[in-house]
Prior knowledge:
Elements: H1 7-17, H2 22-30, H3 39-44, E1 49-54, H4 77-86, H5 95-105, E2 123-129, H6 131-144, E3 148-156, H7 160-177, E4 185-191, H8 205-217, E5 223-229, E6 241-244, H9 248-254, H10 259-264, H11 268-275, E7 278-279, E8 290-296
Parallel strand pairs: 1-2, 3-4
Antiparallel strand pairs: 4-8, 5-6, 5-8, 6-7
Helix pairs in contact: 1-2, 2-4, 4-5, 7-8, 8-11
Amino acid sequence: LTLGGVLVEKGGERAFAVGADINEINALRKHLDQVKGGGLVQRVAPARLLSLILSDVIGNPLDVIASGTTVADSSTYQQAYEVLEKYGLVRDVPESILRVLQGGMKGELPETLKAGDPILTKCHNLLVGSNVGAVEAALHKAEAEGFRSMLLTTYLQGEASQVGVVMGSILQEMAKNWHPLERPACLVAGGETTVTLRGEGRGGRNQELALGAVPLVYGLPDVLLVTLASDGEDGPTDAAGAVVTGNTLHRARSLGLDYRQHLHENDSYAFFDALGDLIRIGATGTNVNDLTFLFTLPSAK
């Protein structure tokens, strides 16, 4: 039900590559696909519709999850086009995408389903799972394993490598000053970062986050940073994420690996693969965003 076959993913892939967030990506998708942006409701009307929703979007906005197939859409053709302008993609996307967006802005194509449409009264949306639930389960498990545990945030976002720097600095605080929790401790963060592609390497946002943390974690005793995609697939790789310890940088140097070069090339996969520190769990079939764990393990004060 896409307009022009692969229009949606071509537009989305290009926007992802330059660091657009999921709200911006889905504004494009909703205006290039006939079931997104409330389109599914329109196509099953006048039948009643129950939608069970599993959220992979920070904050669980129903009109963004899966591009809002069963809810009203607050975005417009104009806003979708502005995403292309913002990231300098107007000249890069296929002409067919521009024709659809420009036609919509001129009123030649109908807008997506909007709030107040009477057909929405026959649709009930129920959120059945989200990142919050995954984080809560992780906290309970950490406590059961003997860790003092605390939620850091379920709104983790930003450029992955820079978020990695922040996560590494928090782990420094935990390791050196025992704040905000004494050892053994586990801080859990959920959300979804983005990667602005500059190089030709392979990786994903979790692997790039982990790589950004490597120099900050260097030398810290008995610590562990674990970051992964809940669906088991981080970017276009077979890894869910990666693990970083205080010894990661030393081991990398012994193998002739330069973390800065790998960051520059967006080549986090090769870096952690060489170390044997990729997390490979296979596809889980469930996507509720990403999880990052900061561990301080038991040690002498």
